[in-house]
Amino acid sequence: MAKKRKSVALLIETSNAYARGVLRGIASYVHEHEQWSIYLTEQDRGSVPPSWLQSWEGHGVIARIENQETARVIQKLTIPVVDVSAARHVPEVPCVETDDAAIAAMAYSHLRERGFEQFAFCGDARFVWSTNRETEFLKCVEKDGFPCSTFVDQRHTKRSPGAERKRLTKWLRRLPRPIGIFATYDIKAQEVLDACRECDLKVPLEVAVLGVDNDELLCDLSTPPLTSIVPDAEQAGRVAAATLDTMMNKSRRSRSQLPSLRLLPPKGIVARQSTDIVAISDPDVAEAVRFIRDHYCEPINVQDLLDRIPISRRMLESRFRDILGRTPHQEILRRRIDQIRYLLANSDLTLIQIARQTGFQNQEYMSVAFRRAVGQPPGAYRKERRSVPQ
């Protein structure tokens, strides 16, 4: 007798890139494991749950629980539920979400390495994850002693979109320049870019902007094209599906032993024109940073910088350290390690191939440098980033 398929409801919107990535991850898990009968409703971010859910006789639910209406329905269900929203309206159910602290740190690092010493954050008061990113971004900026201005969209109140747009443009005009702005997601970043054009602010010369989600269509349609952080949405979907699968196959008693929250770090960042600038007043250090940025995947060293910049090694290292807090050698190595992290998590390249693509002479030297910087060997890092609970 054929085994009966489990019925799973997906209360996840299809209106944004992150949610679609989560759905792709769920689909990937389902295709590789047991087939489910999927119930996917058409809804927008924050929509109330469908009326049929309260009496639905399915086996499990994966939901973006982003409002109290959805939370109340979910709490009445007796079947397993996995949440894929940072709002945590139902804290007793397992949750799989992005690591907002890691996203904020990546945003700050990207803007800081371009030489910015003035920062701003543009958020959206409707979403907990936006508030989380604001808090963590401010921590990064304040730790290094730099100023940071914030703007939080309040259109969820009685303010009209037009009034909020005027408030945004007024805020942008008051910002010091040059400045790096971290927008909490791509849609908000696109709004910032549009407002910059209204204010006649030059991007990225005066204002650099980056977002989150890497919605490729939205990023490419932006003017200029938008730099964006890539959250691991598909892995979030896979982990959520695997967690639900475990819950549906175990007793109610053992379900409570599952981890209540799992945070996934971002996959990396796709740099586009909106942050393509080196905002460093020292021309020699700026030239060194540009050269490293363009050639770090090649077997370059500090001497290659000195061949282009007519100052002594001691002087370059001193000025480099004063401005960026590290030496040119450390900057080369930092960029290489970041690229190795990305390739380990997102490609099937061998360690030998990764070493060749990141400027190392051989795999052994790369592995030693990676372990010293990250605290674990490349193979263990790759295994950890690709693990899915069974």
Automatic annotation (TrEMBL):
Cross-referenced SUPFAM superfamilies: Homeodomain-like, Periplasmic binding protein-like I
Pfam families in UniProt: HTH_18 (PF12833), PBP1_XylR (PF22177), Peripla_BP_3 (PF13377)
An example Gene Ontology molecular-function term: DNA binding
SMART domains the record matches: HTH_ARAC
Domain annotation HTH araC/xylS-type: ranges: 286-384
InterPro entries in the cross-refs: Homeodomain-like_sf, HTH_AraC, LacI/GalR-like_sensor, Peripla_BP_I, XylR_PBP1
Keyword vocabulary terms for this entry: DNA-binding, Transcription, Transcription regulation
Domain of life where this protein originates: Bacteria
PANTHER family per the UniProt record, alphabetical: LACI-RELATED TRANSCRIPTIONAL REPRESSOR, XYLOSE OPERON REGULATORY PROTEIN
Protein's recorded name: DNA-binding transcriptional regulator
Species name: Roseiconus lacunae
